[in-house]
Amino acid sequence: MDAGMQCRRGLALRAMAVEFPEVEGHPNRLPFEGCLTLVDVASDKAPSGARGHRVVLTREAAEKALPSLLGMAVDYKAGWDGHDARQKCGIITAAELDSPGKGQRLMVRGFVFARDYPEIRRQMETDVTASAQGEMGMSYELADAHVADMKASVWRLTRATFTGAAILLREKAAYRGTSFRVRARR
């Protein structure tokens, strides 16, 4: 596992990954990458569990929670319109935050279990327009979230633990700036 701050040309990057051995043509490992969320940005709409409040995941909270993403499951719901934590279809193997001042994205990579969930492969590979036009997005799943002020109209999350993620249509995600795409195999 690689963790910590890497400094290059004055830029700091917070990244973590679990390295899996390369298995040429593995039938059940379909690599993906996506923007799971944006940090220090209010969500476009209230996520599930936020009692109708839009939320801001602070950069500090995201940095501290980054290790909790590794090994967490990715799920999906039929219709691509929400979460179904019982439909685990993949795993997150890497996570990184854009450098402060250079972006607000929390990016993830991993594998979808393509042989076990052929409908995901079909959605991603045969519906080219969904991937090409960026219609697919992601959404995080949290536990132990701490809200700075429960009376605020927009909740600021100052602490959280990631418990997973979902693949869904971007229009259904709390953050419309998320993304999901299948990566080319090496």
Low-pLDDT stretches are 1-12, 126-132
Question: How far do the termini sit from each other?
Answer: 21 Å
Structural class: mainly beta
Shape: globular
How many β-strand runs?
A: 10
Estimated radius of gyration: 16 Å
Number of helical stretches of at least 4 residues: 3
Strand content: 35-45%
Order of helices and strands: EEEEHEEEHHEEE
Helix content: 10-25%
Q: What is the arithmetic mean of pLDDT?
A: 86
Largest sheet: 10 strands, mixed
Any key phrases for this structure?
186 residues; mainly beta; ten-stranded mixed beta sheet; 3 helices; globular
Architecture overview:
The protein has 186 residues and is mainly beta. Helix content is 13%, strand content 42%. It contains three helices and ten strands, in the order ββββαβββααβββ. The chain has helices spanning 59-69, 118-125, 128-132, and strands at 5-8, 11-17, 30-38, 54-57, 73-76, 88-97, 105-112, 136-147, 154-169, 179-182. Strands 1, 2, 3, 4, 5, 6, 7, 8, 9 and 10 form a ten-stranded mixed beta sheet that branches. Strand 6 and strand 7 form a beta hairpin. It is globular, with a radius of gyration of 16 Å. The two termini are 21 Å apart. Residues 1-12 and 126-132 have low confidence and may be disordered.
